[in-house]
Amino acid sequence: MSATDPIIWQKSSFSGGGGENCVEVTLHKGEIVMRESDEPDSTIKTSRAKMSAFIAGVKNGEFDHLVN
Q1: Half-sphere exposure at residue 56, Cβ-oriented, CA atoms within 13 angstroms
Q2: Cβ(34)–Cβ(23) under 8 Å?
Q3: How far apart are CA 27 and CA 43, in angstroms?
Q4: Which CB contacts under 8 angstroms, 24+ apart, belong to 28-34?
Q5: Confidence at residue 28, expressed as pLDDT on a 0 to 100 scale
Q6: How far apart are CA 37 and CA 10, in angstroms?
């Protein structure tokens, strides 16, 4: 990711205001890239298939215990 290849980050509408409590995601060169809004230089990458499996688990409630 560079200045010559601009990234458009997306965050949930459920994120906190003022840029807090935000996990941001983008699709970049075929990979899903994620970062925390308060640590913008620290990113992780994953494949679309892995993100799809994770989202399916979230929708199924498999991670609810982490936030409740």
Answers
A1: 6
A2: yes
A3: 12
A4: 28/1, 33/1, 33/7
A5: 93
A6: 10
Classified as helix, coil or strand, 40 is strand
Question: What is residue 3's predicted lDDT score, i.e. its pLDDT?
Answer: 59
Find out whether 9 and 33 touch, Cβ atoms under 8 Å.
no
CA separation for the pair 31, 54 (Å, rounded): 14
pLDDT (tens digit, 9 = 90+) per residue, 51-64? 999 999 999 999 99
| Model confidence, pTM | 0.78
- 8-50 residue pLDDT tens: 999 988 887 666 678 999 999 999 999 998 888 999 999 999 9
